[in-house]
UniProtKB/TrEMBL annotation:
Keyword Chaperone attached: no
Protein name (Swiss-Prot/TrEMBL): RDD family protein
Chain ranges passing through the membrane: 30-48, 54-72, 93-112
Cellular compartments per GO CC: plasma membrane
């Protein structure tokens, strides 16, 4: 590792400090979470008379379907993020399942390392990086 005062998230992973391909930061992550949670809530209200369990399962389903197909959930893509394996390749199908189940446990998602990767990403072998998006800079 380099000088801690000069360290930036993603440096040890070989990622750039800023711009496309750099580690996604907290604000866009939160925005993507809110964007993805809204349809889960609407569908839960429409079909399950608002069941928190149904809402959570719909949210997990959104993650499991869209991460392998679009490279991220609709929320990720709108705010300009992508989920990739550590080597930059396609996540496959199993990694998004593991990542999504751990995400719903909440604690793995809020425990981050120095590269701002949540425990759910570390266990799944994935990272959330900046990508061109509708609202990205």
């Amino acid at each position: 590792m380099t000088n801690p005062s000069a360290y930036y998230p993603g440096q040890d992973l070989g990622l750039p400090e800023t711009g496309v391909g750099s580690i996604a930061r907290f604000t866009p992550r939160l925005g993507a979470l809110i964007i993805d949670w809204i349809p889960a809530t609407i569908l839960s209200i429409a079909f399950f008379d608002y069941s928190p369990l149904a809402q959570a399962l719909i949210f997990v389903g959104i993650n499991i379907v869209f991460i392998p197909t679009l490279g991220g959930t609709p929320g990720h893509r709108i705010v300009g993020m992508r989920v990739l394996r550590l080597d930059g390749a396609w996540t496959g199908v199993i990694r998004p399942i593991v990542r999504s189940v751990l995400l719903m446990l909440v604690i793995p998602a809020v425990v981050w390392d120095q590269d701002q990767r949540g425990l759910h990403d570390k266990v799944a072998g994935t990272m959330l990086v900046r990508a061109p998006g509708i609202f990205s800079r």
